[in-house]
Specification:
By secondary structure, this protein is mostly beta strands. It has a single domain (about 1-90), classed as Immunoglobulins (Immunoglobulin-like, Sandwich). It is built from no helices and 7 strands. It has strands at about 1-10, 10-20, 30-35, 40, 50-60, 65-75, 80-90.
Length: about 90
């Protein structure tokens, strides 16, 4: 899953949502950012079947540039990669 952005040179919060399509509750066990310019938060409690959970990513640009950042999410032993790509303008 990815999002493409054109943003100003300031912090940007993105929210990725997921629906638990399994037959049992799932919990995000670990979220790892590709660099120090991205931070993340996520739904900490178990997400029951059919419910929606979130992974929020904050990107802090360091000037006018293009970017391609990833966040790895471990849900019940499965790895998923979220990507944010785009351009930073003035």
């Amino acid at each position: 899953m990815y999002k493409y952005l054109v943003i100003n040179n300031r912090l940007k919060l993105l929210s990725f949502e997921y629906t638990n399509k399994r037959t049992h509750p799932v919990t995000i066990q670990k979220v790892t950012s590709s660099c120090g310019c991205t931070t993340s938060g996520w739904t900490k409690e178990p997400v029951v079947p059919g419910a929606i959970g979130y992974v929020n990513v904050t990107y802090s640009p360091s000037g006018i540039t293009t970017f391609d950042k990833s966040v790895s999410v471990d849900i019940a032993g499965e790895q998923f990669v979220l990507r944010i790509q785009g351009n930073v303008k003035e």
